[in-house]
């Protein structure tokens, strides 16, 4: 064991079981760190006669004016930065951050493995983290929150969490999409998407709610779990029709890209849209309006969401407590569904 006089901040952090950045912020009484953690680290500092070198601390915590944006892509997915919706979110975030004098550092969950707080914050790569997507589990995100790093997440804002989440009302969106199809005359509506994904799972709950309200049976074959890509949707719809025939007349797609993949599969089989099958997506990417037929969808206001995420980040920088926010969604009716 090193002598008390030679104890470093890193040593103290290891004794406390926290990251170096968390120990530094705790000793500086940063409100981002939980009071219990601050008290614990201060008590250890007293016990080991440790005094923080203020000049070194300032150097370590010097602002970079950079925010790391991590695309939290789930394992075993083909979704990537080329996804038009992710590109739109990143673009809107970049504009919102630039207005506040910050630059955007883009990464993904495959590159930034392990301890995100240590990789981005303690190493002075960035001042804070914005994570796009909760995926199927939030262990890495929660670790960032527990470390006390400034953090905002795009995901399901209705979920209980220790960190601020900004996102759309996904359950309402799924409900509105399903009701739109049912009210336009569809009798057997599919849900196409990854129900284990946090946001997609909420959209599926809205789908179930709509069926229940109209006393329609919730059949297992009406939910087709797939990866969140057009390729997966195209393959699944082709496989389903080959094995079971056309037993559905409507599709609630978990995203616009999923919807476009389904449309491609149906058109290749000369199935009329919306004559035989109506399809509604989720996101309102630019391709939704340009595709043929143009895609009915649930619009997510990514510009407003980006501004809100940046606002919640700025609140943390000024020592204020952040909060989760629900962003309004809107049903945009186009030609892939029958007119009500």
Structure described in brief:
With 340 residues, the chain is of the alpha/beta class. 43% of the residues lie in helices and 16% in strands. It contains 13 helices and twelve strands.
Account of the protein in words:
With 340 residues, the protein is an alpha/beta fold. The chain is 43% helix and 16% strand. The chain is built from 13 helices and twelve strands. Strand 1, helix 5 and strand 2 form a beta-alpha-beta unit. It is elongated and about 75 Å long. The N terminus is likely disordered.
List keywords for this structure.
340 residues; alpha/beta; six-stranded parallel β-sheet; six-stranded mixed β-sheet; 43% helix
**Largest sheet, strands/sense/barrel:** 6 strands, parallel
What structural category arises from helix and sheet content?
alpha/beta
Low-confidence stretches: 1-5, 54-60
Mean pLDDT: 88
Distance between the termini: 75 Å
Query: What is the CA-based Rg, rounded?
Result: 24 Å
Tally the beta strands. 12
Tell me the helix content.
Answer: 40-55%
Task: Provide the spatial order of strands within the biggest beta sheet.
Answer: 2-1-3-4-5-11
Topology overview:
Blueprint (H helix, E strand, L loop, with lengths): L8 H8 L3 H8 L7 H13 L6 H7 L5 E6 L12 H16 L3 E6 L7 H7 L5 E5 L6 H8 L4 E4 L10 E4 L1 H14 L5 E4 L5 H16 L9 E2 L5 H15 L5 E4 L2 H13 L9 E6 L2 H5 L5 E5 L1 H16 L7 E3 L1 E4 L8
Parallel strand pairs: 1-2, 1-3, 3-4, 4-5, 5-11, 6-7, 6-8, 8-9, 9-10
Antiparallel strand pairs: 10-12
């Amino acid at each position: 064991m090193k002598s008390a006089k030679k104890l470093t901040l890193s040593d103290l952090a290891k004794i406390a079981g926290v990251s170096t950045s968390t120990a530094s912020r705790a000793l500086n009484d940063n409100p981002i760190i939980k009071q219990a953690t601050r008290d614990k680290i201060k008590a250890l500092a007293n016990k080991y006669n440790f005094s923080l070198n203020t000049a070194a601390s300032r150097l370590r915590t010097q602002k970079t004016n950079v925010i790391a944006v991590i695309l939290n892509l789930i394992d075993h997915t083909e979704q990537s930065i080329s996804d038009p919706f992710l590109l739109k979110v990143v673009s809107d975030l970049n504009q919102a951050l630039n207005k506040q004098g910050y630059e955007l550092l883009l990464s993904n969950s495959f590159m930034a493995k392990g301890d995100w707080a240590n990789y981005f914050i303690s190493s002075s790569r960035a001042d804070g983290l914005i994570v796009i997507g909760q995926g199927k589990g939030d262990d890495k995100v929660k670790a960032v929150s527990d470390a006390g790093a400034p953090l905002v997440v795009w995901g399901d804002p209705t979920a209980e969490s220790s960190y601020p989440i900004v996102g759309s009302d996904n359950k309402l969106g799924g409900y509105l999409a399903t009701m739109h199809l049912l009210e336009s005359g569809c009798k057997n509506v599919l849900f196409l998407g990854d129900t284990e994904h946090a946001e997609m799972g909420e959209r599926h709950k809205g789908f179930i709610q709509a069926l229940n309200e109209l006393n329609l049976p919730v059949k297992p074959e009406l939910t087709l779990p797939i990866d969140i890509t057009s390729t997966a949707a195209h393959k699944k719809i082709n496989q389903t029709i080959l094995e079971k025939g056309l037993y559905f007349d409507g599709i609630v797609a978990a995203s616009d890209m999923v919807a476009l993949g389904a449309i491609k599969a149906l058109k290749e089989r000369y199935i009329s849209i919306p004559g035989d099958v109506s399809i509604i997506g989720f996101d309102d990417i630019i391709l939704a309006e340009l595709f043929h037929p143009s895609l009915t969808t649930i619009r997510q206001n990514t510009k407003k969401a980006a501004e809100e995420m940046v606002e919640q980040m700025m609140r943390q920088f000024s020592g204020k407590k952040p909060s989760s926010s629900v962003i309004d969604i809107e049903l945009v009716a186009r030609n892939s569904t029958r007119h009500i």
